[in-house]
Amino acid sequence: MEQNVFFLPHEGLRLAELAEFLGAELVNSDHADVIVRSVAPISRARAGDICYILSRRSRDELATCEASAVICDKALADLVPQHLPVMLSSNPHAAFAMAGGLFYPAALRPVAFSGESEIAPSAVIDPSAKLEKGVIVEPMAVIGAHAEIGEGTRIGAQSIIGPNVKIGRDCSIAAGASILCALLGNGVIIHNGARIGQDGFGYAPGPRGMIKIVQIGRVIIQDNVEIGANTTIDRGAMDDTVIGEGTKIDNQVQIGHNVQIGRHCAIVAQVGIAGSAKIGNGVQIGGQVGIKGHVTIGDGVQIAAQSGIMTDLAAGGQYGGTPARPLNDYLRDVAQQMSKTKLRGKKPGGEQND
Amino acid sequence: MEQNVFFLPHEGLRLAELAEFLGAELVNSDHADVIVRSVAPISRARAGDICYILSRRSRDELATCEASAVICDKALADLVPQHLPVMLSSNPHAAFAMAGGLFYPAALRPVAFSGESEIAPSAVIDPSAKLEKGVIVEPMAVIGAHAEIGEGTRIGAQSIIGPNVKIGRDCSIAAGASILCALLGNGVIIHNGARIGQDGFGYAPGPRGMIKIVQIGRVIIQDNVEIGANTTIDRGAMDDTVIGEGTKIDNQVQIGHNVQIGRHCAIVAQVGIAGSAKIGNGVQIGGQVGIKGHVTIGDGVQIAAQSGIMTDLAAGGQYGGTPARPLNDYLRDVAQQMSKTKLRGKKPGGEQND
Amino acid sequence: MEQNVFFLPHEGLRLAELAEFLGAELVNSDHADVIVRSVAPISRARAGDICYILSRRSRDELATCEASAVICDKALADLVPQHLPVMLSSNPHAAFAMAGGLFYPAALRPVAFSGESEIAPSAVIDPSAKLEKGVIVEPMAVIGAHAEIGEGTRIGAQSIIGPNVKIGRDCSIAAGASILCALLGNGVIIHNGARIGQDGFGYAPGPRGMIKIVQIGRVIIQDNVEIGANTTIDRGAMDDTVIGEGTKIDNQVQIGHNVQIGRHCAIVAQVGIAGSAKIGNGVQIGGQVGIKGHVTIGDGVQIAAQSGIMTDLAAGGQYGGTPARPLNDYLRDVAQQMSKTKLRGKKPGGEQND
């Protein structure tokens, strides 16, 4: 990719410095003063870039690679040609991710609109709101009564922070998001247009239509959670909706009232989780999955994209399909379906006789 | 749940007053002066709370329940221990919902950002717009030319009301929603980030790409409709898109141009309804369902989550699956699939021989 | 539909003028001075309306039609009764679309909030941003540092244009959209609440949770693209996310990082396209389809609604289902499923014995 104006390369770090930051080992100290400024995939890394490899399949690409350094596991170090500086790491992917964050700190957070002043004059902040020092409020943000915002947090342009909401330190609320009836920990990132804390979908059938059941719970978002663009998270009905520490949620996910999600989960785009479902720790959910209300998903479960979860899922399992079943079963069903399709096309006599 | 700052408990009502409001019967008039302030599920209701039961399965919970009153049907009254005041109602769920609304009126509507003044000075309101008395306009809302807003309606922070839009009385437009080319009845609630009235998706293939078909219809939203966060409703092409009285729509639902939805429907999150579909009255649609364009869904139909509707569905039926079929058939297919999965796992010889 | 206030009929054009504009042939020059002002479907076209027909099935409707003109192919002209002026076009649908745009130019673009002045005083525009002449900035829009906006482009109310973003000429950014880290061509339309250019969903597993992989690519949106309400398009990780010329994307579509979409595609609502997928030219994707990351979809492919694409799809094919298979196979499977359901219902002895 030609250089772009949104993320300028770093002014440069010596490999020795970078290795120390990453907790990696620079194999040849002759390379200590080589300067790196950016990250790139091995297929097009050039001078100044650092890249990484995970398997022996990268051998050919290494032969012609012009990167200024390659991060790899000790077991793969022999693959790397002499001319390329090698950094050893037991987790090259994580080391590469850390390098990226070091080179492009601005890219770790939603795009900033902050001008010279910390509090944009166009923002509307209730006088009773408490902002710690170092809080940035971008243009046209609205902050309600008695809201509390921690040090180092940025409230994005045109975002909305409801009355009494508490946001911890070093959080980023991107432009156009709304946060209501919620308590956020530290280091939380909320992307553009996410809607947190509106009331859940609950009604009782009455004689003249549905009667709204008041939703008086909250949304609790623990430390280091990230929530994608246009995702919606309803507040609890009479309990709380909880998103556990370190969980990452992609765009356009819908999370119903009272849902409890554990720590360090990854939830891909357009997933829907119905009310009162309980998701364990370290759960990974593929895109467009639907999860029924009140089910329990055990720790470490992995769910294939587009699956429909109608029952509890035991911890540690991999599942797929609608209804969801063990992943191997699902993949076999998929393979059978595909093979049936191919056979059918070739079957003499054709489908008229089916 | 510990007390929360977003919804403070009510100052308290006498059970006699509450019974009168609910149209319920307080069994023992000795309890007339007991004070209630909040609602809770039976599992953790305490002094000051009112709860409800729907079946005999709640017997054990009742034994240890500390609520200040229990709402139940006459047939279940004998279950309730002597120490608990009983309110009889033929519809305990509805009575409980009404009690919730009475205790927490603020929770019946999107979170308010209104300060002391009724019209926020930062709002931009076209001079030709007509606002009845008692209209509240929150910070940074934009109201276009010739828009008309009825008494008691609140226009939320940073929401957008298009030119010529008409909104009835006692409506709530939440922060960050946009309403264009639409006529809204009374008592309508539009949640955060909902997008109403942008043009539908219509093109004619031309020699140099797709030619836009102008969308000159409107969106008609009847009384007491509620529309969820980040839901999108396109205006009609040459007809109108219509949402019938009392219908409730959850978050992230997509409703295409010319769709007509009847009265008192419930549509769960992430449903997609393609253009010109007709949905009857009292229809219930589960999450992530997709409905093909131009189909007709009869009154009272219930559709299971994630179903795909490709054909008309007769009134009163229950359906599920893709393609949608009678719910019992679908559930049997689901059960067979699950049972096949289980058998397979146990089959001697394993899947290598399949 | 009764007249509506959102889109007033045109002041009127002579049929001769309209024919010239459309490149159509007015059969009978006696009708040259007939005035038309609007478009309507044949079923309710009246005096002043123009309509079109595509097949002989419209014969009955034509008999009672009161339109001021009918557009049709030469082969169908004999169907039209004597009293109705006929315009011949080899592509009546496209001609009708063009007529609509001529009568209702305002409906070709998102609803405008622009008052008398071109730059709303409430907008916050960084002094370093460059706006060509004729740029309209509506109330409360925020434009970041060094952004560049081309002549004739309208930046909608409360929309957000990030630092360094470049937007071409004659574009429309609707109210409440956000555009970050993106380069837009000419004639691009972005609808309300669309979120363009936030960072993609990428993490490396680390010892203490997921480590964010910086997303330093861009979003490139070519000429005449249209993007629907509340759609989200993530910027590239180390490459760019690209939407090709003339492609039309509906509401609530999710497009992951590094996705490349060709020219003149049509993508219906609620589709999800995972990271690094490559979509060819002229591809049509039905609603709620999910496309796996890194797959390649050939030119001209058509995909039925709700399908799940797990593998590459060859150019020119039609596909449906999950897993996606040739459309004919999928439709046969659907028909079998439906027929099985019907048989089952009629089977003597019933399902108790199943």
TrEMBL record, chains A, B, C:
<dbReference type="InterPro" id="IPR007691">
    <property type="entry name" value="LpxD"/>
</dbReference>
<keyword id="KW-0808">Transferase</keyword>
<feature type="domain" description="UDP-3-O-[3-hydroxymyristoyl] glucosamine N-acyltransferase non-repeat region">
    <location>
        <begin position="33"/>
        <end position="99"/>
    </location>
</feature>
<feature type="active site" description="Proton acceptor">
    <location>
        <position position="257"/>
    </location>
</feature>
<comment type="function">
    <text>Catalyzes the N-acylation of UDP-3-O-acylglucosamine using 3-hydroxyacyl-ACP as the acyl donor. Is involved in the biosynthesis of lipid A, a phosphorylated glycolipid that anchors the lipopolysaccharide to the outer membrane of the cell.</text>
</comment>
<keyword id="KW-0012">Acyltransferase</keyword>
<keyword id="KW-0441">Lipid A biosynthesis</keyword>
<comment type="pathway">
    <text>Bacterial outer membrane biogenesis; LPS lipid A biosynthesis.</text>
</comment>
<keyword id="KW-0443">Lipid metabolism</keyword>
<keyword id="KW-0444">Lipid biosynthesis</keyword>
<comment type="similarity">
    <text>Belongs to the transferase hexapeptide repeat family. LpxD subfamily.</text>
</comment>
<dbReference type="Pfam" id="PF04613">
    <property type="entry name" value="LpxD"/>
</dbReference>
<keyword id="KW-0677">Repeat</keyword>
<protein>
    <recommendedName>
        <fullName>UDP-3-O-acylglucosamine N-acyltransferase</fullName>
        <ecNumber>2.3.1.191</ecNumber>
    </recommendedName>
</protein>
<dbReference type="InterPro" id="IPR011004">
    <property type="entry name" value="Trimer_LpxA-like_sf"/>
</dbReference>
<comment type="subunit">
    <text>Homotrimer.</text>
</comment>
<dbReference type="Pfam" id="PF00132">
    <property type="entry name" value="Hexapep"/>
</dbReference>
<dbReference type="GO" id="GO:0103118">
    <property type="term" value="F:UDP-3-O-[(3R)-3-hydroxyacyl]-glucosamine N-acyltransferase activity"/>
</dbReference>
<dbReference type="InterPro" id="IPR020573">
    <property type="entry name" value="UDP_GlcNAc_AcTrfase_non-rep"/>
</dbReference>
<dbReference type="InterPro" id="IPR001451">
    <property type="entry name" value="Hexapep"/>
</dbReference>
<dbReference type="InterPro" id="IPR018357">
    <property type="entry name" value="Hexapep_transf_CS"/>
</dbReference>
